[in-house]
Amino acid sequence: MAQSPLRVGFIGIGGIGAGHARAAAQHPNMEVAAFLDVKDEFLERASRQHPQAAVCKTLEQFLATPKLDAAVVATPNSMHAEYTIACAQKGLHVLCEKPMAMTVAEAEPMVQAVKSRSLVGLTNFSYRWVESFRLMRETVKSGAFGRVFRLHVKYLQSFLRDPNSPLVWRNRVEIAGFGALGDLGSHMIDAARFITGAEPRRVIGVKNTHVADKLDPKTGGRAPVTTDTDAQFMVDFGAFVGIFETSQVEPAHGNHLVVSFGGENGSARVYSEDGKRFELALGEPYANYPTWKTCLPWVDVPTTKQLNLKSGRGCIDDFYSAIRDGLADYPSFEDGLAAQKVLNGILESERTKAWVEF
After folding, report:
1. Which of 20-24, 90-94, 212-216, 265-269 comes out lowest in average pLDDT?
2. Sheet arrangement for strand 356-357
3. Where do the domains of the chain lie, and which CATH numbers do they carry?
């Protein structure tokens, strides 16, 4: 007997939420069932694209949608905890955008809300579905690199650097909680954990705001940017230390995430801008000293023929598979909480000017 479609509702449909809805509509056994947003223009657009879905303006209306199975929470960060917990209490599986919450104190009840009801809670760490990241992870797990000695993660964007662009919610700390640190740093932390399999033990870091203000679309004047635009931090993983740097005001960088590391048997680099390959150097770890030529040439490793993707097709596909098929390999709310602890640890370390342990 064929299963009935998984009916999914979407909370926050202005940006990434709209993309999730399109992905769900293309899934052979998912149904876009409802939308909730505070902006009429977003609801009108979503209704045109998905006319069968209920249009909701309050959480109560959304939760009253008949036969709803799951929810996607893609609101500004300050609303993640409230909506996620309310959906879980209603018995809905939840896919939540990152960063998971504003604080660890918010994130922990989110984890408990789904765990106590045996629900799926998936955090959208999207780089887990990039082929090159997954192959790099499998190569590390195989033991080919031996022990990891060094990790460097860099994530640079430029889209917030124009001081004459309008102020958006990402520029307001009371709504976003973080700037580049949360938006990009959460991906960086998860990528490091995902690829190496190591867990953070302590962190120290700093953040800066290099664009002081932007145009206020409501007044036409200037409004302060209260989130960070740049952050640098160091994470102690026990056996090795990771160096992280991020910016959303770096010229000439669209969406540039690089993860590189070195181990006792070789080195590797992976790029967000090319998910079909990664750079690899494996062999005897010695340099020919007189000429400084390495005996470990870098090679490009194509991923498509090397990686048997049993999962990793995308967050919506794996959200469905986790709910209906018991898929266990997905970024859980526990993974979201792990990143949240590092993010808030960085804020605390900046305040105390000391390492923060977990």
Report:
1. 265-269
2. 299-302, 274-282, 266-271, 255-263, 148-157, 241-247, 230-236, 202-208, 356-357
3. 6-126+314-331 (3.40.50.720), 132-311+339-357 (3.30.360.10)
